[in-house]
Write a structure and sequence with these properties.
Radius of gyration: 22 Å
Number of helices: 5
Shape: elongated
Number of strands: 7
Distance between the termini: 47 Å
Length: 207
Amino acid sequence: MTGRFQKYFPVAFSLIMFFIIGFLVYMYYPENHFALQYQAAVDCKRVQAVHNIAGLAERFYERQGYYPLANYSHASRDKQSPGSAISVIVTDKELPRSYTVNPPLEIEGKLIMPGWFEEEVSRVLGVKVKLPYDPQTNFAWEKRFYLYKVMPDGNYSVSGILFSPTEYTQKEAKHRHRYKVVSMPSKMNNGRSYKAIENEQIICEKP
C-alpha cells in the first residue's frame, strides 16, 4: 500500500493543485459570473457612499451657507488664501508618498486628509461624522478611494470609481469608471446634480 501511495501521490497532488489554481482563476477572473455579481454589489455600495458624502456636504451648506472646506482660510488651519481648489481623498489606506509631489490627475489644488473634513462637518452638524470607505474586501481586487473636491467657485464634487460602467459614469480605464455627484452641473465636471439623486432609494445586495 505504501509503495502504491508513493507511486500515485505526485499525480494526485498535481491534480489537486491544478484544480485549486483553476478554481481561483475562475473565481477571480474579471469577466467571471461570480466575480461580476460580487463587483456589482460593491459598486452599488460605492454609489451609496458617494451619495452619502454629497448629502453631508449639502447638510453642511444648509447650516453654513458654503460647502465643507470652501472657507479654506478657516478650515485648512494655514495661511493659504481662500479660493484654492481642495481635494480630500477618502480612504482607510495609507496614501503613497508620491501623492504629495505628483498626485493623480483628478486631484486638484491642495490635498488634505479626510479627518479635517470629518472634523469640520461634525462640528457644524453637531454629530460625530465618519466618512465611508471603499467596501472592497476581496483580496484579489484593489481598494479604491472616494474623492471630495471643492473648487475655487465654492462648488463641490464627490466621486468614486466603479468596476462596471453605468449611464452616469465616465470611463477612465477597463473596469475603472468614475461616478460623480456635483453641486452645480456643467460641461466641465460631467457629474450628476445632487438634486437629481437626493431622493433616490438605493438597495444593495451584500457583497
